[in-house]
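Onboarding guide, step 5: your first structure request.
Type a short instruction followed by the sequence, for example:

Predict the 3D structure of this protein.
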Amino acid sequence: MSLALYRRYRPETFAEVIGQEHVTGPLQQALRNNRVNHAYLFSGPRGCGKTTSARILARCLNCEQGPTPTPCGECRSCLDLARGGPGSIDVIEIDAASHGGVDDTRDLREKAFFAPASSRYKIYIIDEAHMVSTAGFNALLKVVEEPPEHLKFIFATTEPEKVIGTIRSRTHHYPFRLVPPGVLRDYLAEVCGHESIQVEDSVYPLVVRAGAGSVRDSMSVMDQLLAGADAGGVTYAMATALLGYTDATLLDEIVDAFATQDGSTVFGIVDRVIEGGHDPRRFVADLLERLRDLVILAAVPDAGEKGLIDAPADRVALMDQQAQRFGAAELSRAADIVNTGLTEMRGATSPRLQLELICARVMLPAAFSDETSLQARLEKLERRGLVGGAVAGGAPVFAAAPAPESTPIAAAPAMPAPTPVQPAAAVPPAAPVASAAATGRAPGAWPVAPSFGQQPPARPEPQAAPAPTPTPAQPQAPAPAAAESGGAGAGGVSAAQVRQVWPQILDAVKGRRRVTWMLLQQAQVAGFDNGALQLGFEHAGTRDGFVNGGHDEILRQALQEALGVSWKVECLIGPAGGAAGRSSAPARPQAAPAQTPAPFQAPAAPPAFQPTPAPAPAPPRRRRPRSRRPRRPLPPPTRARTTTTCRRPPSIRRRTSPSRTSPPSRATI
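The system replies with structure tokens like these:
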């Protein structure tokens, strides 16, 4: 009967140990310098070479040519400790899992003081040292602290924190690590070459993944595959079926279905996984591994050449094409959801239901409001051509394209300035009208306020205008459409760009609340300012009903669902959402006729651009005398009034103070 693969290829020197150069190098240098400690602690994951390195160190110490970093392999000690050797009586291996009590430790302490039988040192290799009880460690403490010259201790454990501090402080600690996948893959290929069995290249990544960085576990898996190989060797189909991994073709199908949002294919694959007897948890783990590769390929296009992905060249090329069909945020979000679902599937009563929920979450980013989901929705809009850029400063950058003529809600032109109706007697002659035309507006007309986002109209250049026939002033021409489009808000968003996607926003609102959709039919997009979408309503009652009824919150949620943005909604009053709409009261165009200034009735026309002097205020000197003049003069004080108020008649004094009597002479005075 042949030995297991990991026993037949067990290293015999430090040079044969793979992936642990950070440990083997210092140990060999210590042997060269003859500075070997009396106790060592080797820690690390299982199957990474702790016990093997302890045996190699024992060979190096007891070699006839040693202590040496390279044992000769010919002396009696080297042959006893070689691969398949009978073992040495002076090198004792103890399994602490079954010999960790205080009695076992006392027995070890009594035998430790005896000299070695035929070797230079007596070496104790205590495997699974964390299983030694606290009392056992305390019984062993004295001999570990002050051992005889011929005694060496090597503790090997996977949990060094469980070794008591008094023991750990008296040892040299060397932590072992998991073997890198690339190094382990080359080692497996070398072993399979020695075994003369053909193995497909796509099998090695599966074995390395199954071994999880442990050399012993990987060798056991490869030994199982080699044992079941036929004349064709070890194939990929055989490895996936035997190890229980998901076929790469099945993973390709579900990833492509995620990219196209094909729910029928996705849930059909889930049914095939369950009906085929596959473990749903293993399928989710394989899907997470595939998404990990796609995330790396999206960030590093040449990840296959750099060794970041352990897969054949054709498989890397296929995964590169899959990564290009997703956005970076979509892949990251899908990986997070699958990872969370894999954790939730532990101990689940219905694994199929958990798997279906994971797939549903991956295909429905609108159900979440986190930043990654919003990024994923924006990337989908970019691929559909609705937007042309990613997020910039917290707001999406919409594609700069002219608004189509078929937009349902077009930009309303600026309202013309109202013209006051003048009485017949107040109609000015031709010259004043000509002067008013030269100034750019009709006499007595109110200036037109610009719409949101548009610049105020430039003052026209002075030019001579012929005197028109005295007719009512013509209304001012509406503002051009280009100026009404609205200035850009925060993040580069303008009102015209919002109007491009307004139909999609209305559809989202209609799906949430139909009353809100009906009210929005009476509103227009007025502008976009500092992250706030401004809506213009013609009537104040409609505006108040929209705000008080919570419809602005419905619109904000619809914006987040349709576009993945978090905008505030500001409701204004005005047909076109202009500056005049900010106030609750309408403009006062009818007050102008009563306040028509008198200079318009002068018989002579003033020169062009001659400002009409404002009426001078009342001279302040006329008001000063009236303000300083007292309304009622105060009477000057007199001595008689003062004497009257100070002296009282005798009758009054007697009533007020009956007990006090005054001399007649003073009363007369």
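Each response can be followed by summary notes, for example: The chain has a mean pLDDT of 74.
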